[in-house]
Amino acid sequence: EKAEAPSSTASCPPNRLMPKDEPMSPRRFGPPQEKAAYKYPGRTNVKMREALRVLDEGVHPLVIRSTQILAVVLLVAAVSIHVPKITLDDMRSLYASLQIDEVYATAYTLVAGFLLTVYFLRKPATVYLLDFAVWKPPTPEEDESLRATTEFFQRTIETCGHFTDESVRFQMKLSGLNQISDKGYFPPGVVHYRKGEKDFDFSMAAARAEFEYVVFKACDDLFDKTGVKPSDIDILVVNCSLFNPTPSLSAIVINHYKMKDSVQAYSLGGMGCSAGIVAVHLARDLLQVYKGKRALVVSTENITQNFYQGNEKSMLIQNTLFRMGGAAVLLSGRGADRRKAKYTLLHTVRTHKGSDEDAFKCVYQEEDAAGHRGVRLQKNVMACAGEAMKTNITYLSPLILPISEQILFVINYVRRKWLGHKHVKGYVPDFTKAVSHFCIHTGGRAVLDAIQANLSLSDYYLEPSRYSLWRWGNVSSASVWYEMDFLEKAGRIRYAQGVGNA
Hints:
By secondary structure, this protein is α/β, with parallel strands linked by helices. It has 18 helices and ten strands. The protein has helices at residues 48-56, 60-82, 88-97, 102-122, 140-145, 150-159, 165-178, 188-191, 204-226, 249-257, 275-289, 313-321, 357-361, 381-400, 403-418, 445-455, 459-472, 479-489; strands spanning 127-134, 235-239, 264-268, 294-300, 326-332, 343-345, 363-367, 373-377, 437-439, 499-501. The strands form three sheets. The protein has a six-stranded mixed beta sheet, sandwiched between helices. A two-stranded antiparallel ribbon has the order 7-8. A two-stranded parallel sheet has the order 9-10. Strand 2, helix 10 (249-257) and strand 3 form a beta-alpha-beta unit. The termini are close together.
């Protein structure tokens, strides 16, 4: 989700200003922001109690952690009270009473040294993000020829003969609601369609050509930016959900760049828009096991073979939302790369709801009644996403929230749930005290609205996501990197700031 990223002086599209009397949601963290061309609709339909329910059900790790913090605070308080009362004579008496045996002292020192050595050897290696690159059309001519404009989209679905009038109206209505500009891109197999002149090309060759066109450009830019050679890559992770040919996608990259025989290659498929973060998580685990290595993570999605040609509404959404894009990311477990790394990877949290039947089928690839293959988005997809978010917050909050926010939240929770103080308003932790920037997957306007409400974030923190959705569309697993590109080009990221990708 995350681009022709704007400069710091022009961080939004033209026609930036919106009416000043636009209603603002209560208690938004972050500085106020002028409105952009992409709208920030009112979110009065999102209840505060729903946001609190998500946080309340993830409170138990916070309770445990806060108990530990309280114990440490009490211990420090006790020491600070009693230590000043100890006199020099007390210290001399204590020293005189001790019978120190040199043999035991040496043994204890050796054991302590051994334990410290084991601890540092077993400590997970630090993983650095050297740099990343997102795909952009290499020439102005290609930029213009691949544009997925509203005029092209409407003309295509009206003249191709696959869609009923009702389906055409439905797709055009969704195109307006999605708030995606005419600057996104379709692959050549789709965008070069002309009735009576050139038909769609959904062949395997066209799908491979799209993958190579996007991925090789992103990787070339990354290698140029970092100075790292393809032969220096030790681990390769490629993710693409809906296109998984033989030879594999990772093999295509290895063959093109003539990587070394010892490279460890992985191809992740069928994991949807979350696969970009899953790929980073896998690369991190591998780098912590095989220390001193470098990993290349490639994230993309293939549009060529996934342009739905049927008329079921739940499967037409993909045509209006997804666009072409990709990203390449270079991670390193080498200590020598610390000075030239842009970021340090602190935490990755993964939760899986596949055991739940509703979550399992909320995004489901299948054929419709007429035999047309597509991805069906069920009506409960937002509810399932909310449950996944709740579980993520359960594990992530204790890792990133400052102690002050954890204590305030636990105190508020105890008063409301255990002491029965129903008049006490719920407290939503200020996540901006732990994370300076948010890169939220551009799954759609409704997804961004729901997450913004649940985390009580101001429009400022959602601008990278809303801009990326407006400029690039939903580019699936690569979206967070387009948002990172926006933040860097806009000059927002500063030293020692935290960036959260979701």
